[in-house]
Amino acid sequence: MGAGKTTVGRHLARLRGMQFIDADHELEARTGVDIPYIFDKEGEAGFRDREEQLIDDLSQERGIVLATGGGVVMREANRTHLKNRGRVVYLYTEVEQQWRRTRKSKNRPLLQQDNPKKILKELMALRDPWYREVADLIIPSKAQSARSLAMLINQKLTQMEPKS
Ligand SMILES: Nc1ncnc2c1ncn2[C@@H]1O[C@H](COP(=O)(O)OP(=O)(O)O)[C@@H](O)[C@H]1O
Ligand SMILES: O=C(O)C1=C[C@@H](OP(=O)(O)O)[C@@H](O)[C@H](O)C1
Ligand SMILES: [Mg+2]
Asked: Per the record's keyword annotation, is Amino-acid biosynthesis included, yes or no (predicted)?
């Protein structure tokens, strides 16, 4: 959360002339409600079930840039689909930076409590190994604009062999 997946992903899609899809926005469009509402009514498990279904669906698309939610690596099926069906970029961000970028937002239910920095730290410890396992490319996102990060990712993807 707060790494810049949604923002950088949109720039990257523009640079590559591809369609951009944000999994959370797509889920909101398909259900007609927002992410906090889904967490509220169905809990995190309900959200994860919907997310898993959606990732299976979207990862079969070709020629898109897909920004996932940060918790996507929590389910093994998601990790497998992303790894097998696309090229995965891990936008690494320090917890302090994540916290600064997310502290005013009301849109991330997991952080709507007293000590969001502690939650971000715990989630990082749990998830970082999975992000690294799934990633084809690891990009530290420290102190660079979203557009320059997208340009860097674009360049690195272009240097890689096309995924068959
Ligand atoms: N490289 C960046 N530099 C400065 N601000 C950024 C950068 N990437 C994202 N942001 C800002 O941080 C916030 C969270 O970004 P977002 O793209 O929603 O992250 P994610 O989708 O990974 O949770 C947004 O307000 C966005 O404008
Ligand atoms: O890290 C997570 O578990 C989540 C990240 C969010 O997306 P962003 O990573 O785009 O904030 C969103 O999917 C949901 O609130 C859960
Ligand atoms: Mg996002």
From this structure: yes
